[in-house]
Design a protein that fits this description.
single chain; 311 residues; alpha+beta; Heat Shock Protein 90; 2 domains; two-stranded antiparallel ribbon; histidine kinase; two-component regulatory system
Length: 311
């Protein structure tokens, strides 16, 4: 019925107009006699009336289409929010279920230390494996908890100098690499002319977390002998921080998957990590009204771009 209404609104006046024209042509009389007005005036008035009816009908159709589009967008937004809520509850439940057994295992391990006098290499290796994997599980639980909290924690809203955030993250990771005996080179390139990077508005701790995770990923998956570059730019009201490496790269079919929680690409197998780093970056970017994207070529390297609106 709703689809038929606009057709009726437009069609009825048109049919009436055509019928009037036929009557005039058949009768051969002047409408001056029937309505007391010249024929051009009558036709012009009829045309204006018909145009007004057509315009009103088309406006109704346009309003209907806009209402349908708005309702569809609202439904999609509600569905996405419901999905995010279910996801947050899943992460919180997973954290709760894993935390207690991992804590119990860590507490029990010191009591089952192999007898140093027994000199049983197999048992010693098994114990070392238990310790390593328990620490890994403990770190994973902590990362999951952090990810769940990031979805809901209130954000600080202050002017943030992203260049300073980048330099702080680079300094911290460089110090960690040097302390491990494997120093790394990170080149930072920031604009100076015609002006430096503008500030963004947000939570400086979360933005540091995002930049630090991008840098850690680049260092982890690139050769020790190669450098990592961090470049800053501004693009039409958006600040872009790009972290580029010349590492193993990511196959095209994995570019979207690596942002999922616990995702581990083919090139990451055998490399320590939880698979949550890029998921954390994505959540931080989205909560600041921004985004993160990847470009990569297997065997050549990867470029990660964090985009945030100017504050």
């Amino acid at each position: 019925m709703r689809r038929v209404l606009p057709v009726v609104l437009v069609g009825v006046p048109v049919l009436l107009g055509l019928l009037a024209a036929v009557v005039v042509l058949v009768s051969g009389r002047s409408l001056r006699v029937l309505v007391g007005a010249p024929l051009p005036v009558v036709l012009a008035g009829s045309g204006l009336a018909l145009g007004a009816v057509l315009a009103a009908a088309l406006a109704l159709v346009a309003d209907r289409r806009r209402a349908v589009a708005a309702a569809r967008m609202a439904g999609e937004a509600a569905g996405q929010e419901a999905g995010r809520g279910a996801h947050r509850r899943f992460l919180a439940r997973l954290d709760h279920e894993m935390k207690n057994p991992v804590t119990a295992i860590r507490a029990a391990l010191p009591g089952v230390v192999p007898d140093p006098h027994a000199l049983d290499p197999a048992r010693a290796r098994a114990h070392a494996t238990l310790q390593q994997q328990t620490l890994r599980l403990s770190g994973l639980v902590a990362e999951l908890r952090k990810l769940a909290e990031l979805e809901t924690r209130p954000l600080e809203h202050e002017e943030v100098d992203l260049e300073q955030v980048v330099r702080d993250a680079v300094a911290d990771l460089s110090d960690q690499a040097a302390a491990s005996g494997v120093p790394r080179t990170v080149v930072v390139s920031m604009p100076r002319a015609p002006w430096p990077l503008p500030t963004v508005r947000g939570d400086v701790d979360l933005l540091y977390l995002a930049v630090s995770n991008l840098l850690a990923n680049a260092l982890k998956f690139s050769p020790v002998t190669s450098g990592v570059e961090v470049r800053g730019s501004e693009d039409d009201g958006v600040v872009v921080v790009e972290v580029a490496d010349s590492g193993t790269g990511i196959p095209e079919h994995e570019l979207d998957l690596v942002f999922d929680e616990l995702a581990r690409g083919e090139g990451a197998r055998g490399t320590p990590g939880s698979g949550l780093g890029l998921a954390l970056v994505r959540v931080v970017a989205q909560r600041h009204g921004g985004s993160v994207t990847l470009r990569s070529r297997p065997g050549r390297g990867t470029s990660a771009r964090l985009r945030l609106p100017v504050g």
